[in-house]
Amino acid sequence: MAEQVDTVVIGAGVVGLACARTLAQAGRDVILLEKADDIGTGTSSRNSEVIHGGIYYAKDSLKALCCVEGKEMLYEYCASHGIEHNRIGKIIVAITEDEVVKLEELKAKGEANGVHDLTWLDAKQMKELEPNVTAAAGLMSPSTGIIESHGYMLSLQGELEDRGGMIAFNTPVEGGEVLADGRIRIRAGGDAPMELDCSLVVNAGGLYAQHIARAIDGIPADTIPGSYYAKGHYFTIAGKSPFNHLIYPAPVPGGLGTHSTLDLGGGTKFGPDVEWLDVTHPDQIDYKVDESRVDSFYGAIRRYWPGLADGALSPGYTGVRPKLTNSNDKYAADFVIQGADVHGLANYVGLYGIESPGLTSSLAIAKRVAGLVEN
């Protein structure tokens, strides 16, 4: 006999937690299903922990809208909830004069998205701010920052539970079907298998989202995007950081280039690169660092930091982004937030391709999901 429940959110990554918390605060009874034994064990714990400015995305795209709105929501949340963060700022650098046009394009794109705090740095100003960086010019994004993402996720979990919500760990969604009355039956496995008849299902499964959707009979197959996986490696250096800000080279085809980010403890990491994986299911992903890729990191980093010493880079970690296209055009695919207007199901919201800037956008995505449900 299936248990009758109000709302199920699938996936306890940062976006699933934000959605569950927001829906619980709106008065819904929420159960959050997570296949792992803790929150944020997937993409949410394998990224740069950057609060993005909203510069790179196409005007009026969900990535642009959710990033710019979500950035302000996230800074306000961090300040009001005591989440460790630092509005440290990012400099995008033109290493040669020929690359300045790329920065001009980014500045125009950012301003079209409502990012109006971008400022130019000439070579002299660059050297004053970043003595170790070699660049012809820079574009400063002062609203870019870093966040202690696990503390943020723990806070979202606490607010969900304060509103009576619960998280069922070790509970993978194995299938389900759309019932005759429009509700959705979810079959979840693990140590305590269960069937839940849900008035609302929000699929925030991240890397697994499309596979979960395909396992629920009645979700139209033609509304479920394809799924591709882009692995990114990070390498680190020991000791004090050579930089005072996040340093990003001008974008390259397929990504943002090998950039440098700082963590709140002062550590420095470089990456991610892009490695398209030849797998058909996220369970097949190998997160091991391929140390042979370090050679390409040295070449890329030395373009803007010539002082990088041989042997200084150490293997860090890897992450995998849930992509909706295998194109090398990083911006070819937007976030997909699907409501009934797309798939015809009043009781289902599907979130697909929620990669970067998903952390920055998490509260704004949750707000949009709540809006779809209210309407």
Second CATH tier, the architecture of the largest domain: 3-Layer(bba) Sandwich
Cα end-to-end separation: 31 Å
CATH topology of the largest domain: FAD/NAD(P)-binding domain
Q: Report the count of strand segments.
A: 21
Tell me the helix content: 25-40%
Percent in strands: 25-35%
Please provide the ordered H/E string of secondary-structure elements. Answer: EHEEHEEHEHEEHEEEEHEEEEEEHEEHEH
- Average pLDDT, all residues: 95
Number of domains: 2
Unreliable stretches (pLDDT < 50, length at least 5) are none
So what's the overall shape?
elongated
Largest sheet: 9 strands, mixed
Structural class of the secondary elements? alpha/beta
Identify the CATH class of the largest domain: Alpha Beta
Q: Give the count of helical stretches.
A: 9
Report Rg.
Answer: 21 Å
Notes on the structure:
There is one protein chain. By secondary structure, the chain is of the alpha/beta class. The protein has two domains: 3-47 and 150-226 and 332-374, FAD/NAD(P)-binding domain (3-Layer(bba) Sandwich); 90-142 and 228-323, 2-Layer Sandwich (D-Amino Acid Oxidase, Chain A, domain 2). It is built from nine helices and 21 strands. The strands form four sheets. Strands 1, 2, 9, 10, 11, 12, 13, 20 and 21 form a nine-stranded mixed β-sheet that branches. Strands 14, 16, 17, 18 and 19 form a five-stranded antiparallel β-sheet that branches. The longest helix has 20 residues, at 62-81. The model has no long low-confidence stretch (mean pLDDT 95).
